[in-house]
Design brief:
Elements lengths: L1 H12 L3 H21 L8 H4 L1 E9 L8 H17 L6 E5 L3 E7 L4 H7 L6 E11 L2 H4 L16 E4 L19 H15 L28 H11 L5 H6 L10 E7 L2 E7 L4 E2 L3 E8 L7 E7 L1 H14 L9 E5 L2 E4 L11 E8 L1 H13 L5 E10 L2 H29 L2 H27 L5 H30 L4 H33 L3 H31 L3 H4 L9 H4 L24
Antiparallel strand pairs: 1-3, 1-14, 2-3, 4-7, 4-8, 4-11, 5-13, 6-7, 9-10, 10-13, 11-12
Helix pairs in contact: 2-13, 2-16, 7-8, 12-13, 12-14, 13-14, 13-16, 14-15, 14-16, 15-16
C-alpha cells in the first residue's frame, strides 16, 4: 500500500507548474477586474485623501435626555448609516458630553453620508387628509380644474411582489381653487380624519378614521390653527419647510411639505398610524421584471404589520387624496403613495419615480432607525491631505529601508535562494495591491496610514515564512540528502510551522479588528489580509518554484553561490547501510577469538 502512495506523491511533485499557472491566472483575473472596475489605485482614507470633519451638538427632545447611553446609541447608528452607504474608514466618536465628531473621507457617497449622518430619521406613516401644489407650482395655471390638479406621478405602494408603478393625484383641491374652497376642503378633512380613536397614543398606535363621520361634540381647539397653518404654508420657502411639522406629536394631525419631480407639495396629515421603529428591514432593489425601476421593500414587525394592514384597508375605501398615506421623515413627506386595498403579510414596497440614490438613502434610513436625540450642525471643516501625505512619505521611506535591509540579509545569508524570496515578495505585493484596489469599490475599503503600517509589518511575516522553509531544506542537506529529496522532505515540517505562525498572526489581527474602532481597524484588516496572502504565496508559488529550481544544475549541484552548498552547510556523508553476514554469529576479527 505504501508504493502507490509514493507514486502519487511523486506525480504531484513532478507538476509544480500547475500551482504556478494557478497563481498566474489569479493575478491576471484580478488585474482584469481592477481595470474593468475603473479603479486602478486603492481608495484613500481621510488622513491620506482629505475629507470632511463635522461637529454635531446634541439637543434634548421630548422624552429623551442627553446622557452617555443615548450618545453611544447615536454614534452606533451614525456608524451604520455611513457604512451602509459604502463610505468606509469614517470615524464617529463623542467629544465631551454633548458633541459628536464625524470624519468622512473624500470619495464615493461622501456627500450623501454628510447629509444623512446627523439626520434624526424619525419616521411615521400618516394618512393624507389633503394635499396640493405649493409655491411656484401652485401659481402655474392648470389646463382644467380636475381632481388630478396637474400633479406629476408620485410613488405608489403595493404589496410585496407587485412591480407596476402607480399614479397618484396630488389632492382634492385644485391648484386654481379659491381660498374659500381650500378652507372648506381642509375643514372637511379635519372633521373626517383628524380625530384619533380612543385607543390612539403618542407612540404611533393611534388609528385615524379615514372615512367621513359626524364631527364630535366640541370642535378641537387646534383645528382652526391647523387650518390657518395649512392655508398659509408655502413649501417653496425653506423657512416654511423647516417649521412645517415642527414639534408635531405622533398622535396629533400636522402639516408637512414634500418634493416630487422638482415641485413642492403641501400636506395636511392625520395622526401617525405606524411608527418607523416598527419597520424591521428595508432595502432598495431594482425591479427587473416590470417597469417600476428602483423600489424600497419594507418588512414590518408583527405589530407594525397589523397596524399597516389596518390603516391601508381603511384608506383604500376613500377617494384621492384620502386614500394616500404620507411617509414622513423628520417632518418632511418623502413619499405619499396611495393604496387600492389592505396590504397584509407584514411586507410592502414603495415604487414609482425613485432614482437609485434616493431608494438607497430611504432604505438606509429605514433600516438603521432613528437617532435618540436631535443634533445641530455646529461646524463643517474640510480636511486636507497635506499632513497625511507627509506621514505617508515617511512611512513609505521607513518601509523601503526595512525592505532593503531584508533583501541585503537574504542575499548575504541565502545567496541564490534570495531570488526565490524576492520573487515571492513581489508576487505577494502584487496580490495585496490588486485586492486592496478592488475592495475599495466592492466594500468601501479605504487605505489609511495604519493600514500602510500593517502592510509594512507584513513584509516581516512573509519573509519569515521563506526563512522557515529554507532552513528546513538546509537541515535535510546537512543530513546528507541531495537537493531534490531535501526540498520535498523539508516541506511537511516547514508547512506545519508556517501554518501555525500565520494562524497566530491572523487570530491577533481578527481580535484587534473586533475590539477596536476607527483607524486601528485598518491596521488589523491589512495585517489579516496579508497574512492570508502569505499562505497563498508560500503554497502556490514559493514551494513549486523551489521544486523547479531543485532540478537545475546550479542549485542541484550545490554551487557555492546557490546558498545550498553541502560543504558550506557542514553536510554529513551520505548514509549507507552494510549487509550483515548470513553465517553463524561469531567474532569478526580472528584476534578476538
Amino acid at each position: 500500500m505504501a508504493a502507490p502512495k509514493r507514486g502519487r506523491s511523486a506525480s504531484a511533485q513532478s507538476k509544480p507548474g500547475r500551482s504556478l499557472a494557478l497563481i498566474l491566472i489569479a493575478i491576471v483575473a484580478l488585474t482584469g477586474g481592477m481595470f474593468a472596475s475603473g479603479h486602478t489605485t486603492p481608495r484613500l482614507g481621510i488622513d491620506l485623501a482629505g475629507g470632511t470633519s463635522i461637529t454635531l451638538k446634541a439637543k434634548a427632545d421630548q422624552g429623551s435626555a442627553i446622557n452617555k447611553a443615548n450618545m453611544d446609541t447615536a454614534v452606533d447608528i451614525m456608524n451604520r448609516r455611513v457604512n451602509g452607504l459604502g463610505v468606509s474608514e469614517a470615524e464617529v466618536q463623542t467629544q465631551g458630553t454633548d458633541n459628536i465628531i464625524v470624519n468622512i473621507p473624500k470619495g464615493t457617497n461622501s456627500a450623501e453620508a454628510q447629509q444623512q449622518v446627523g439626520t434624526t430619521a424619525k419616521l411615521y406613516f400618516r394618512p393624507v387628509l389633503a394635499s396640493e401644489p405649493s409655491g411656484a407650482a401652485a401659481q402655474s395655471p392648470s389646463p382644467s380644474a380636475s381632481s388630478s390638479g396637474g400633479s406629476s406621478p408620485k410613488p405608489g405602494a403595493s404589496p410585496s411582489g407587485s412591480a407596476s408603478p402607480q399614479q397618484a393625484t396630488s389632492g382634492s383641491a385644485s391648484p386654481t381653487g379659491t381660498a374659500t374652497s381650500q378652507g372648506r376642503a381642509v375643514t372637511d378633512a379635519l372633521k373626517a380624519g383628524s380625530t384619533p380613536s380612543p385607543s390612539g397614543s403618542a407612540s404611533g398606535s393611534a388609528k385615524p378614521s379615514a372615512t367621513p363621520s359626524a364631527p364630535s361634540s366640541g370642535k378641537p381647539s387646534g383645528d382652526t390653527a391647523l387650518q390657518a397653518r395649512y392655508a398659509a404654508l408655502n413649501c417653496a420657502k425653506p423657512a416654511d419647510r423647516a417649521n412645517a411639522g415642527k414639534n408635531a406629536r405622533p398622535g396629533q394631525p400636522t402639516v408637512a411639505c414634500g418634493e416630487n419631480d422638482g415641485a413642492w407639495f403641501k400636506y395636511l396629515l392625520g395622526p401617525a398610524a405606524v411608527d418607523g421603529t416598527e419597520v424591521k428591514k428595508a432595502q432598495a432593489v431594482f425591479d427587473t421584471q416590470g417597469a417600476s425601476g428602483w423600489q424600497v421593500q419594507m418588512t414590518f414587525t408583527s405589530g407594525g404589520g397589523k397596524k399597516f394592514a389596518d390603516i391601508t384597508g381603511e384608506l383604500a375605501k376613500n377617494q384621492t387624496p384620502q386614500n394616500e398615506f404620507g411617509i414622513v421623515l423628520d417632518g418632511e413627506v418623502v413619499s405619499s403613495p396611495f393604496v387600492h386595498g389592505a396590504i397584509t403579510g407584514g411586507q410592502a414596497e414603495i415604487s414609482g419615480s425613485f432614482k437609485q440614490e434616493e431608494a438607497q438613502n430611504l432604505a438606509n434610513m429605514l433600516s438603521y432607525g432613528a437617532l435618540p436625540l436631535s443634533f445641530r450642525e455646529e461646524s463643517v471643516t474640510t480636511v486636507t491631505a497635506a499632513l497625511g501625505g507627509e506621514q505617508l512619505r515617511a512611512g513609505l521611506l521607513a518601509g523601503a529601508i526595512g525592505l532593503a535591509l531584508v533583501v541585503i540579509y537574504l542575499v548575504v545569508y541565502y545567496r541564490g535562494l534570495s531570488l526565490v524570496a524576492m520573487a515571492s515578495l513581489v508576487v505577494s505585493a502584487m496580490l495585496t495591491y490588486l485586492i486592496m484596489t478592488l475592495l475599495g469599490p466592492a466594500i468601501g475599503f479605504a487605505l489609511n496610514l495604519p493600514a500602510v503600517c500593517g502592510a509594512i509589518v507584513a513584509i516581516g511575516i512573509t519573509a519569515d515564512s521563506f526563512i522557515v522553509y529554507f532552513e528546513r531544506i538546509r537541515d535535510e542537506i546537512r543530513e546528507g540528502r541531495s537537493l531534490r529529496p531535501a526540498v520535498e522532505r523539508a516541506w511537511p515540517r516547514a508547512r506545519r510551522t508556517i501554518l501555525v505562525s500565520d494562524f497566530v498572526s491572523f487570530l491577533a489581527a481578527a481580535v484587534l479588528f473586533i475590539v477596536t474602532v476607527g483607524k486601528v481597524q485598518g491596521f488589523a484588516f491589512t495585517l489579516g489580509l496579508t497574512t492570508l496572502l502569505d499562505v497563498v504565496v508560500v503554497f502556490l508559488f514559493t514551494k513549486p518554484l523551489m521544486t523547479l529550481l531543485a532540478r537545475r544544475k546550479f542549485f542541484a549541484d550545490g554551487h557555492k553561490w546557490s546558498g545550498l552548498d553541502p560543504k558550506g552547510l557542514g553536510a554529513k556523508p551520505p548514509l549507507r547501510r552494510t549487509r550483515r553476514s548470513a553465517g553463524p554469529a561469531g567474532p569478526a576479527d580472528p584476534k578476538e577469538a
